[in-house]
What we know:
There is one protein chain. The chain has one domain: Alpha-Beta Complex (Fumarylacetoacetate hydrolase, domain 2). It has three helices and 15 strands. It has helices at about 20-30, 105-110, 155-165, and strands at about 15-20, 45-50, 55, 60, 70, 75-80, 85-95, 115, 125, 135-140, 140-150, 175, 190, 195-200, 205-210. It has a six-stranded mixed β-sheet with strand order 2-1-12-6-7-9, with no helix packed on it. A five-stranded mixed β-sheet has the order 4-15-14-10-11, with no helix packed on it. The longest helix has 9 residues, at about 155-165.
Amino acid sequence: MNPWTPRWTPKGTVYGTLLNFRREWDLWSARMTQDPHKAAPQAPVLYVKTANTFCPAGQDLLLQDGVSEVDIGATLGLVIGEQAQVVGAVLLNDWSVPHTSYYRPPVKFRCRDGFLGFPAQVMAGKVEDWATLQMDVRRNGERVQTVNLRGLMRNLPALLADVDEFMTLQPGDVLMVGTDCLADGTRPRAKAGDQVEISAPGFASVITTVRGAA
């Protein structure tokens, strides 16, 4: 890419999806009937990644306010065009402060400055192109996770249809399909000095170096 070419950033709102991988759903299902919710969610559980979280390609993630490590959140973002149609997709790193709330973690865990890593470019295509996509997560060159979209609770068409039941996605919006956990329910973590890469065949990778506060 020409160094003067603008790096991609979303033109609309970025939405994340919680509990959309079977492994995490199964791990947390026993707690879904507890207070205050008393039942498993019937619709997709969404949250917003605010504009302050945007971290375009080439920028580092700076840890601040006493945060010493972060959860790595490899995910696929569906880019919305006219008439709520998907026009492309991107790999994203949906960083989060480690936490134990499975339903609606506080904003302070997910919406810190720089907590959404972007690639340089969007991958054009159709939803059916990515049904079996696998994303590799590497920390300092070592693979620490493989995320397989075959493990989704709601596959890509089902997630889009269920979201459409209660809201209309606008041109420029991005819908993240969710992040998977490891076998023990945690996610891979990174600390200051680590370089994290999320990659998948045909996609521009997301590469971010984590820095500590000065």
